[in-house]
Each structure stands twice: as C-alpha cells, then as structure tokens.
Fold this sequence. Notes:
Helix content of chain A is 16%, strand content 40%. With 437 residues, chain A is α+β, with helices and mostly antiparallel strands. In chain A, a hairpin with a 4-residue loop joins β3 (67-69) and β4 (74-80).
Amino acid sequence: xxxxxxxxxxxxxxxxxxxxxxxxxxxxxxxxxxxxxxxxxxxxxxxxxxxxxxxxxxxxxxxxxxxxxxxxxxxxxxxxxxxxxxxxxxxxxxxxxxxxxxxxxxxxxxxxxxxxxxxxxxxxxxxxxxxxxxxxxxxxxxxxxxxxxxxxxxxxxxxxxxxxxxxxxxxxxxxxxxxxxxxxxxxxxxxxxxxxxxxxxxxxxxxxxxxxxxxxxxxxxxxxxxxxxxxxxxxxxxxxxxxxxxxxxxxxxxxxxxxxxxxxxxxxxxxxxxxxxxxxxxxxxxxxxxxxxxxxxxxxxxxxxxxxxxxxxxxxxxxxxxxxxxxxxxxxxxxxxxxxxxxxxxxxxxxxxxxxxxxxxxxxxxxxxxxxxxxxxxxxxxxxxxxxxxxxxxxxxxxxxxxxxxxxxxxxxxxxxxxxxxxxxxxxxxxxxxxxx
Amino acid sequence: xxxxxxxxxxxxxxxxxxxxxxxxxxxxxxxxxxxxxxxxxxxxxxxxxxxxxxxxxxxxxxxxxxxxxxxxxxxxxxxxxxxxxxxxxxxxxxxxxxxxxxxxxxxxxxxxxxxxxxxxxxxxxxxxxxxxxxxxxxxxxxxxxxxxxxxxxxxxxxxxxxxxxxxxxxxxxxxxxxxxxxxxxxxxxxxxxxxxxxxxxxxxxxxxxxxxxxxxxxxxxxxxxxxxxxxxxxxxxxxxxxxxxxxxxxxxxxxxxxxxxxxxxxxxxxxxxxxxxxxxxxxxxxxxxxxxxxxxxxxxxxxxxxxxxxxxxxxxxxxxxxxxxxxxxxxxxxxxxxxxxxxxxxxxxxxxxxxxxxxxxxxxxxxxxxxxxxxxxxxxxxxxxxxxxxxxxxxxxxxxxxxxxxxxxxxxxxxxxxxxxxxxxxxxxxxxxxxxxxxxxxxxxxxxxxxxxxxxxxxxxxxxxxxxxxxxxxxxxxxxxxxxxxxxxxxxxxxxxxxxxxxxxxxxxxxxxxxxxxxxxxxxxxxxxxxxxxxxxxxxxxxxxxxxxxxxxxxxxxxxxxxxxxxxxxxxxxxxxxxxxxxxxxxxxxxxxxxxxxxxxxxxxxxxxxxxxxxxxxxxxxxxxxxxxxxxxxxxxxxxxxxxxxxxxxxxxxxxxxxxxxxxxxxxxxxxxxxxxxxxxxxxxxxxxxxxxxxxxxxxxxxxxxxxxxxxxxxxxxxxxxxxxxxxxxxxxxxxxxxxxxxxxxxxxxxxxxxxxxxxxxxxxxxxxxxxxxxxxxxxxxxxxxxxxxxxxxxxxxxxxxxxxxxxxxxxxxxxxxxxxxxxxxxxxxxxxxxxxxxxxxxxxxxxxxxxxxxxxxxxxxxxxxxxxxxxxxxxxxxxxxxxxxxxxxxxxxxxxxxxxxxxxxxxxxxxxxxxxxxxxxxxxxxxxxxxxxxxxxxxxxxxxxxxxx
Lengths: 437, 950
C-alpha cells in the first residue's frame, strides 16, 4: 500500500557498480532536455522517457516522484526554479546524497548567474560545464563549496567578459584554490577588505496548521541565521545567545566548532568569506509557539442554492508589539465555484475562475481597523454543494522580531586587530501557514 | 555576449566551419571554436568528427582551453580509441607539470578515458600521483584508482595500487583519507570477499579522526564505511556512537542520515539499561524531525527511512506525531508517506488527534490521498482497539457525505473491522445497505457482499440484496462473483427454507455458465458439499475465521534488520533487500544488526534465539537424535499448512441441475441440531471415557463376545489413555508448547495435542508430519487449528492417525518423531506412544487357534515379566484389559492361582498371546508373552502394567 508512489517495476542495476552519479539531464517545464552532462560513459537521453512518463502521470509538476526506477538505471530528480534536475545513477547510491548534490548544483548556478533559469544556463553553458566537471569527478563530489569554486572558475560578470575578450585571458583560475586543503577548507586565504563588516540575519519561518475552530493543530518554527561576512584575514568569531536553550535541534555550517557548542552553547567559528548559512534550527511544536495572526472565517454553501457566502477577517495576535506586513491570503476554492463577488476593506483581491485560485493582497494589518473580505460566491446552477472545504494560506512578515524569542547576545572577533562593523537583523515570515475552514 | 551565441550556427556546413576555426592560428579563435564544440555536445549533438582537430588544441598553456579539450576527450575518446592515443603524450607530460592543478587534472581525465590502450600508459603517472607531495593531487589520484579498477581490475591488482590506496587511509590529510575510503568502498563492492577495507579498532580510529575534518561528502563515505564495522563489545560501540553523534547536527541531510544509520546499527549492541542508550534515543529524534522541514524530495527519502526506523524503534518518534501531519500543498508522494507513518505511530495516547486529522484529509481533493486516508481510519481501528468505536463512527460520518469513492473505501475498511471485532458493530449494517446502489468498484461490491453474507441472519432482506447483485452476475469481476457465490451459500446455510432457489441459481451460474475455472471449482465444491453432507458444509462454510492481525504491512523482521543496516540507500527507499538492486548475487552481502553483548538481555536478540533453536536438536535428549538421515527425512517432508477447508468427500454423484439433492440436505440441515452435536463430539476434544453407544461393527462384536464369556465379566472399562506429558517445551520452540497423549477411540487412533502459545505473537498455519516409524503411523488429516493461536492461548486438537504410513523400525519400538510447523518455524520432537493404541478391536482369537498358535511359537520367543503391586482380582483385571482390546479367551484356576489366556492383535496383523498368572493374596502377577515378533513383547508388557495400574 505504501509503495504506490515508488514502484512501477523493480529495476535491477547492472553490476559492475558505477558508483555515484552517472549523468545529469536538465529538463524544462515543457519537457525538453536542454542540457546533458555525463561523468562516465554517455547514457542515451532516451532514459528520460521514463521521467516524462512519470511527469505525465503527475497531476502537478511538483508531484513527480523524486526516485524513478527504469530497467537499468534509477532517475533521481529535484524540481527547482521550474527546472527538473534529473540525475541518472546505475548502482546503489544514497538518494539523499544525490538530492543534496543536485541542490548544491542549483545553488551554485544561482550564485554564479544570479538566477537559475533555462536562459541563464544556456547563456553560460561553458561555465556550467566547467562547473559540473569541477563539482563531480567520477561521480564523487570534488569541490562544492562556492568559495573554492569561485577560485577555480571565475563567475561571469559583464566587465570580465569584456576584459577577457580584449585581453584573451580566461575565466579559469590558474592557481590551486588555497582553501581546498587547509584546515579551513571553506575559507580562502589572503582575503582583504577596506570596510570590514559582519552582518547576521535571524530569519524564522513559522509553519502551522490551524483548525476550523481556530485552535492550533501543529505549529513549528524553522529558523536560520544567514551571514554576510566580509572580514580581512583569518578572523575567529564567537556568537553567543541570550537564550541558547531554545536551540535544541540545530544544523551547523561545517565551520562551527561543535565541541564548544556542546559545552558552552557558544557558536565559535572561522567564517567562510561572503554569504553563507551559519546554522539552521527547528523549534518544535512541543515548545509553545506563538501564533501571530488569527483568521475569522465563514465560508458556507447551502444545499440547493447557487450562492455561497464568503467572509474573512484577519487580526494580529501575539506579535510582541510588531506589525504584520506583506500579508497575502490565498485559497483554492472548490471546483464548483464559478465566480466571486467580494469586497475587500483594504488591499486588492483576484479570483481566477479557471484555476479557482483566490488571492487577496492585504498589505499591512492595522489593529484598529481589521481587514476583511466579504461577499458571495456563485456556484454552478443545479450542482450539488461542494464536498471539500477550502484551506486558507497566509503569508506575512514581521520585521524586527524572531517569533521564537531567540536573541543574539554578542559577537566577538579574535585573531585580527581591526574593528569590524557588526549588525544583526531579525525577521519572521510565514512558511506553510494554513487555516482549515 | 553570452554563450548562447555558440548555438546559433546551425547551417549545413557547421562541422566544416568549426574544423577550420579549430585549426586557426589565432589562440582566441581556437578557444571560441572549442567552446562552440562543447556547447553542441551539451545539447546532445554529435561532434565526434572533430576529434583530431580538438585534440590538436590540447598542447596549450591556457588552462581553460586545456580543460575544455579534456572535457571533449572524456566524452568522445571511447568512440575514437585510436585517435585517443594521440592525447597520451600530453597527458603523461601534464602529469609532471609543476602546477598541481594541472597534474591533478591530467590524472583525473586520463582515468575517465575508458580506452584500454590509454590505461596502460596511465599506470606510471598514477603511481607518481598517488605519492605526490600535494594532497590535492593525492586525493584525485585515489579516486583514479577506483576508475581504473572499473576498467581493468586485474591491472590494478597487479600494479599494487590497492595497497597504496590502503596506505592512504593513514594519510595526514583528511580529504585524502575520505577519498581513499570512497575508492576502496567502491572497489570492495565488486569484490565482496576481498577484505579490502580491513576494519579494525586502529583503522576505525583513523576514520573517526578524519570524519571530523573532511568535507561533507567525505563524511558520508566514511560514515557508510563505519556502518560496515562490527564493534567488539558494547564499550567500543558506545565510544563510536559518541564520536558520530555530532554529525547529526550537520547541515547536509545525507550526512545526517548516514550518521543515523551508524547509530541505529551500533545501538543494537548497547544494553538497554545503560544511561547512554536513553540519551542516544533522545538525540535521534530532532535530526529526523529536521529532515522533514527540508525540500520535498529530501522529505520523501527521509520519510521512507523514518518508516523503517519507527518500525524498528517506535520509541524514538513516539512524541513527534504532529510533524507528520499533512499540509494541503505537500506533494502527493510526501502526503502518502506521512499518512503511513502516522498510522504506525498511532497509539491510544494520540488516537483522537490522529482521527481528527484523518477525517480532515478525507475531505481533500486528491482522490488517491482521500482513499488512503479512509483506509488509514480502518487501520487505526484495527490497531488501537480502544479507538475502534470512534473510528467506526467517523467512517459512518464519511459515508453520510455520499461522496462516492469515500463511501466505497469506507465499506472496504468496515469489512476489515468486522473481521477484527466480530459481533460488535453490526448495528451499522443498515447504514451500509443504504449505499448498496452507489457501489461501482469491485472491491467495495465484494466487501459489501461479504458483509451481507456474513450477517445474513441479521439482515431481513439479505436474499433480496444478494439477488439484486445476481442479475448482472456475468458482468461482475471475478472477485465479486466469488464473493457472491460464497455469500449466497452462507445465506442458504443460515436460512435454508427461503433461499433454495437463489442458491440453485448461483450454483448453476457459477458452474455452467462461467468460463472461470476458479469460480467453477468453488461452485462445484459447494455443490458437492451441500449435496453430500450439509452439516459438514455448514461447518466448513460457516467456520470461524482466523483473526486478522493488527498491522498488516509490517516489514518482516529479518528484512527490517537488513534495511536498517542500509538506511539512506535505494534499498531503504524501496523497502526491498539490496540484493534486488544488483544483477546476479555478486557483491551482495546480507548485513545483519549486531547481537547485543551486554549481560542479561543476550537472549532477546533474534539471532541468538535462532542459533539456539538450530542447535537444540543435538543437545536435547527428547528431541530428534542425530540418526543418520532422519533429520533430513523430516526436513524433506512436505509441510503444507493446514487449510481451512476440509477436502470435500469424494462422491461420484455429480449430476448437474438435479433438484433432488437438496432434499436430503435440507432435512438434515433442519434437523441439524440432533445430528450435529455427536458428529462434532466424536472428532474433537476429550471424548467421554466410556465408549459411545454408536460404535462401529468390530466393537459391537466385541461387546457380544463379552457377554458370551458368561459371568464374572462386568461392563468394559474405557481404553487406557496415558496422561498428557509435555513433548515440546516452549523454550525450545520459540514459545510454542506442545503436550499430549495418544488414545484409541472407536477404533480410531488419535493423537491428542495441547498447543499453547507462550510467545508474544500470534501463531498460525500449523501443520504436522511424522517421520517413518515402526508401525507406519501417519496423520490421517491435516492438523485442524483453524483460528490463529494468540499469545497465552491454548488449543486442544485431536489428530486422527492412520497406520498406513511408511515403516521403519525405531528404537525404542514405540518411538515417534514429529515435526510441527507454524508461521514461525518448524520444530521437531519425539514421543513414545503406548502400544495398546495399536491393539485392534477384532483381536479375540478362537480358543482352538489360540492353543495351536501357542504351541506353534517357539519357546525362545516367550518372555516373562513380573507385574508388581497389583491388587485387582483376575476378573477385574480381565475386564480392565478388555477395555484396551486385550481379550481374555479362557480362564483356568489351578491351586488357587488364576491362569488367564489372552490374545492381542496389532494393527499390522501381529498377534501376541499372553498367559497371566494371578494368585489370590499375592500382589505380584506373572505374565508370559509369546509372539512371532518378540521385539514387541517389552512394549506389550509395559502396556499391561500401565493398564492394570491405572
């Protein structure tokens, strides 16, 4: 019963084991392969037919199963930026390994080209090829740290392209990347800045399911601390928190000294150069998570009537005095709804009669004047009352506040003499925040 | 100026144009041309024709150009092996380049060119690079050994590269160590027994040190390698665990899952009472939960693995139910997996929450998901008994929604609930019947029909309901047809008077109008049963059904153990053994969890139990002796599981369409009460000790003769039945205890068994076989254990025996070796039966014949025994012996001493003659036995003793 998504036919992999990732195909949303890369022998692109079959069966693009068996290979895919990255493997390879690697490829492309789109990849196809070759050798990941890759292959910039054309120089580094083999492989040596600065963003996303009556079914916070560190030399940083006990489920960047954290609950690290994610953490539903917004709703359909009522009111709740911004409501209304006639007290709303997607861009919530959206829905005449209840999806932002209450105490730097600029920002966003009606 | 310009030239002479540009004198033009070639390659165009021209560009100082040419070479060398040779010189030269980047690049590219001729040239440069001063080159070279091994394994061995690689495990640079481990692991995969990765405490220590310092990918290789190690004891196991746990906080989920694998495996060795064990359990939950907040693809793989983990160690995530709640915009493959895990974690404590969620899901849009949610409600009802009622009412609510597929799914699961909790929720049948017309899926129709048939006596219009299905009988799927046939037969057996016509109709539809052999056969079986023995039909068709187990789709424990050892792999995603992923058995080693070594809990591990069970036969005296091929014989016996249906009696009357066959059947059915009970009594349980009145002919004769004997002989006593003894202790049979005895009732030898389940799990599929034995005893039918035997349940079974089985002389003569099978294993034991069981009812000899035979048997064959402390008089003794088919033929009294002459006939036709001397006042009897087969005398004597003293 549990195998429905997994199994079409059991494929058997041929021995000799060709370890790790064999080939990579990039497929766009219309189902064309626009790039292929083979690390071992060439695998015919017809292997992707199995992927296309699965794609056809899936109701939505994101429903394509990530692992697909074929008679001689397995296809492991991720969907990012509306591009499928399809890896072909031939032997028992940990699928997470492949998926993580594919995500790393996507991140690298985005890092190099600003965006990860079909056009950007095609525009930089040679760099893409060089990158892929550098990232994987014989299917083993070689260099996946953005710092190191950038030393090996310079990211394209307009200036460099022009310079290269004039001088005939290349965008491939001639020197062995310095960080590659040092004890701090994530940092290159000889970094120099005139303005030394270290900025940290504490960003929390709240995922929640709220039931009809307004009580919380589950709520959890996924937090990250993203850093932008531009410091000269080899700085050694320590970051301490006011309330480190909140962090009982954390994943660190490899630069963080784990022992120190275990013993003192202090983050001690030599940072990579530039942007990186210092840590991500998870505050689970066992700790009480404050819900910053409430929704009053009344969505009803009457049997035999071709009209339905729609009423929605939003209000702030437990926001620690900070305002709710960029509020956006979306909801997939039942198929039977033909159109809506609604009246927003603020912001704008749209309803797409084809996809049945209602979205209401609320903007800021003013606690004195709560935003509401009221009116009627017209249903197909004579059709029976819809069975499903729409779920309301809410997006919002709260500036200057981390919902979990996490607070950075201080940031210290050792190992270098200069005084850096330091800054910490907090922000809370809605992740998958759903209200059932 | 972007690379897309390289795609623009699609004119006819493209290749020609490129060729010209590649041979251009201008460096810049050359590079642009190579870029164009690469661009064509990326979109799958064949540019192999340019091979010589591209290779010509290889000799360059420009690193980018060199890299591009190398890229091209890797792609096309295989198709142009002769041309590829042209590149060798440059490669060899580059391997000596002062720039380590170029050295590494050259050795890396050479390894990727799968051309035999090139590999020969590769060896020398590779050897140098493996010992290069620069770790970057060494780590690249390590991977190259694996590549070379893939092309030519023999060459790698001959050149001694494997040893060099092993040395690299002790390299000072952690990245080199990690790559060496990765390369060795890959090579070891194709040499399962090569012992390449010789893991010992020292090398493990090196790996653990490198683990802290190498890249995330290297950590995965090292952790996967560690998982293959088996620590010597629990202390080593703990220290490895301690050093691996920091990996649980790694940002790379593949590292986390590999660490979980190592911990799950090594935990097995830790004693459960150890504090650290509890700490470790607590540490495992958060990283698993965190995996679920990652991208959906990662979530999917994580969920498949968590599914295994919760089956193995449910305690880890028992408080984390909420993270598996489904968000409406999760991809469907994530939703379905979450649902599965929710059911596995469901318990009395959280069932209310789970049900509320499931009910919510049942109103979603995605049909597959809704169906699975409804099924899940049914599974909860079956798993958590306390919740059954709530589940049923939830299902009823869902049925009220009248959403077609929801109703159908609900009916299918309600059928299972009825099976699990019979006679509890039948009140809902009326509601179910209301929805009869909306059912259009075979599974739902079949389920509904089953319900109607099963509870026909409670549904007033059951006949009408079933009749309505019958109209379109031939359009139904086989599943529905079979179910309808059975249901109508059940109905008929329950309400025979009103449904004759219906059953006629369905039987003829099934047997005459159908092409489906299954349906036809089932139809004939019912027909015959009903026509020959409606009572038996009732017993068979309405027999008690085996209970359905709590969790239907648990992974079988040994497979689960193997999969736990493969957490994070494809095998764990597919829940299939790794052997299913590699063609041929090469390279597959079944991994098992290590046995716990700590004190006290040693016997808990299944491994240990297995081993004990395996060696028990030799060790235990009462179990099968190692008598040559005996064990083999037993093992070869066909141990078919007992079937729930008794084979139909073979009557030749197979008239079709006859109406009259029902006449007799109907009568006996209606009078079923009278006929039924004695028939039942005869076969089962402990029958009354006094023989029932309806004895068959030989016994009847015996009774007559008895009265012939004249005075002194009273009513016969029952046959001697030895008390039950334990034949198979529970500890030798994984919790199954068997005790029993033998009896002869109404001329039938019966083995009376008491089966007790002292294990924690349900036992089913019992079957029994005997080894060849002295008198050819064999089971006359299957072992009738119709319902599964729950924990701490006991069942008494009596097994009729025949004496027509294969014969082999045993020592002692009355030894019987038995094999009993159930769903868990096959068990062997031996027991001794009293030979009196074999004394047949017509064993009374004519006086003259007795005299003649007595004289005829040589005196050598006579044996004398003493029976001590027997206080019966001769008449009482004679009477008692008669009960066991030892017949007194004559009695003489000489000098106050009674001489009784007796005869016995064994089932295999051997006669035993006896003279019993009983002296008044002397408690010691003397007995002389004469037989042509004197071996039996000893056994017969034992019987005398047993009978007289009981």
